Amino acid sequence: MTGGGFSGAAAIAGIGATEFSKDSGRSEWQLACECVLAALDDAGVDAAEVDGFSLFTMENNPEIAVARALGIPRLSFFSRIPHGGGGACAPVQQAALAVATGVADVVVVYRAFNERSGHRFGAGPPPFAYTPSTDQEYRNWINPYGLLTPAQQEAFLAMLYMHKYGATSEDFGRISVLSRKHAANNPKAWFYGRPITLEDHQNSRWIAEPLRLLDCCQESDGGQALVIVSTERARDLPNPPAVIRAAAQGVGPQQISMSSYYRDDIDRLPEVNLVADQLWRQAGLGPAEIDAAVLYDAFTPMVLLQLEEYGFCGLGEAKDFVADGNLEVDGRLPVNTHGGQLGEGYIHGVNGIAEGVRLIRGTSTNQPAKPIENVLVTGGSPVPHSALVLGADG
Amino acid sequence: MSEAPRSVVRTAVPRLVVTQDNEFWFRAAREGRLEIQRCADCHTLRHPPAPACPECRSFDWDTVESSRRCTLHSYTVIHHPRDDAFDYPLVVGLVDLEEGTRLVADVSGVDREELEFGMELEVCFAEHAHGEILPRLRRREKREEER
Ligand SMILES: [Zn+2]
C-alpha cells in the first residue's frame, strides 16, 4: 500500500454494461440486473458471492430489488451516496473501504436508468424536487427565476470563466469535438461513426448561453456495473486488476447543489480541489504521474475547470492545454477515450469508471500507445464531488 | 416581454419551500421589500437564509432592508427547454447587491446585446410562477436623491 489507509487494498475486477440507447424497451430494474450479471461474468465471480452493494442517489433500483431478482441471499454492506453525478465515484470509495476493512468481500456498484425514454434530467426538475424539505430548499433561490435544468444552472460559472480568462465557445467546442472523435471509434458509443467538426458545434443552437446543444451530453438509457474485490483476490481472476490507488469525496465552503453562487469566485470548484489533494496524498503521486483521465463531461466547460482544479494546467490555461492537443489519444493526457458522456452515453459517470478500467487493462478502443499506469476518473461538478485514481497492479 | 398573470399557467417550477428560516424573506418580498438576514452578534449578512451564522455560529439574527441597488456579476440567456412561466429568450442574472450579498433573479427589459458584466441594475418585484411575488432585475432608474 502507498500513502496508508486503504490505498491499493481493493481493485475493480469486473465491468459490465447493457447497450447504451435512447429507448431500452425494458425496465430500469431489468437493466440493473443485466449490467450486474455482465460485470460479475467479466469478473468471473458468482452472483451468490456478492455481499455488498454501493450506489449513489437518483438510482431508482434499490439494492434489495436487485438482490431479490438475482437471488443474492445475503448482503452485509449497502450504502448510498447523495448528490447524483457528483457522487459517481464515491460508491467505489465505499466499496474499497468495505473490502479493505473486511466488512464485505464482493461489492457491486451500478447505475441503471431509462434517463432518455423515462424522466430526462434536462427536461426540468426531477420528481423528487417537488418534495418540500431542507434537501430541496435550495431550489427556492434558482427555480422560480427560470434556472430549472443543470445546463441553465451551470451557465453563470461558464459565462464568468469566459469573461475572466478570454475563453470562447470554440474552446468549449473543442471538448465536444474530441469526445465525438473518440466515440466515433467506439462501437459501444451512441455516436459511433459520427464525429463532428468545430463548425458543427458552433452551428448548434443555444441551450443556455454560453452553452450550445453540443456542449451538453446526450441523455441515455442503459446500465453499467462494476465489481470490487480485494486486490489479492483480483489477481486470481480473469482480468488484470484495476487497483483503487485513491478514492475521495469533497464538499467545499458554502456549497449548494448546482448553485454555489455566493462564494467569492464562482468559477472555482474548491470541492474538486479538495478531492484532488486527497487523491494525490493517498496515492502518493501528483498530476504529472497521471497517464490518462476520464473527466465528467455532462457539460463541456466543466472539463476545462476540472483540468485546472486537478492541476494539469494553471488557472485559465485549460483552453490552451486543450487546443495544444494534450487531450488527444497520443497527447500528454488522453481524456475521455471512450467518447465521454458527450459521445458514448450518459450513464451518470459510471461508464467513465469502466473506461478507466479498460485503460488500465489496455483494452480501450482508443488505447494510447504509451503505457498507462495511473488513470484519474472524476464525478460531476459543480456539486459535492468525488473521484478515483485507478492503477495497474505491481 | 408580456406581463400576463403567471398564476394560471402550467409550470415545472416547484412550489416554494417555506420554512422557519426563510419565511421572513418571502413575506418581505410580497410586501415589496428586499430583506437580507443579518447575524445579531457579529452583524455578518447572509443569503440565502440559514438558521445559523457561518462566521460566529450564532442562532440570533435580524434583517436589514436592501437598497435594491446592484451590479451584474454573471448571467445567462436561456433558450431551451421552455417553461410556461417565462418568456424566452429568458435573461437570468446573478447580482452583487450594494450591501455585499448576491441574489439570483430574472432580468426584464434588457436585451442580450446590452448585457455587460458590472452593469448597474436594481431589484423590483413582480409576479412569478404560482402567483408568488418575487424579485426581478431591471435597469437602474435614476432616483431623486441621485440626480
Ligand atoms: Zn455571526
Describe the overall structure.
The complex is a heterodimer of chains A (394) and B (147). Chain A is α/β, with parallel strands linked by helices. Chain A has one domain (10-118, 217-392): 3-Layer(aba) Sandwich (Peroxisomal Thiolase, Chain A, domain 1). Chain A is built from twelve helices and eleven strands. In chain A, the strands form two sheets. Chain A has a nine-stranded mixed β-sheet with strand order 3-2-4-7-1-8-11-10-9. A two-stranded antiparallel sheet of chain A has the order 5-6. The mean pLDDT of chain A is 97. The model of chain B has no long low-confidence stretch (mean pLDDT 93). Chain B folds into two domains: 15-65, no CATH class; 67-147, OB fold (Dihydrolipoamide Acetyltransferase, E2P). The A-B interface holds A 122-125, 129-130, 132-134, 136-149, 152, 155-157, 159-160, 163, 205-210, 213, 254, 256, 259, 261-262, 266 and B 12-17, 19, 22, 47-48, 54, 73-81, 83, 85-86, 89-90, 92, 94, 101-102, 104-106, 112, 117, 128-129, 132, 134-135. Strand 5 (206-209) of chain A pairs antiparallel with strand 4 (69-78) of chain B, so a sheet runs across the interface. Bound molecules: zinc ion. Zinc ion (ZN) is lined by residues 39, 41-42, 44, 53, 55-56, 58 of chain B. Chain A: This is Lipid-transfer protein.
Give a quick rundown of the structure.
The complex is a heterodimer of chains A (394) and B (147). Chain A is an alpha/beta fold and 394 residues long. Chain A contains twelve helices and eleven strands.
Outline the secondary-structure elements.
The complex is a heterodimer of chains A (394) and B (147).
Chain A: E1 10-17, H1 28-43, E2 52-56, H2 63-69, E3 77-81, H3 90-100, E4 107-114, H4 150-165, H5 169-184, H6 198-203, E5 206-209, E6 211-212, E7 221-230, H7 231-234, E8 242-250, H8 270-283, E9 292-294, H9 300-309, H10 318-323, H11 340-343, H12 350-361, E10 374-378, E11 385-392
Helix pairs in contact in A: 5-9
Chain B: H1 23-30, E1 35-39, E2 45-46, E3 61-65, E4 69-78, E5 90-97, E6 102-107, E7 120-127, E8 133-139
Antiparallel strand pairs in B: 1-2, 1-3, 4-5, 4-7, 5-6, 7-8
The complex binds zinc ion.
Residues 39, 41-42, 44, 53, 55-56, 58 of chain B line the site of zinc ion.
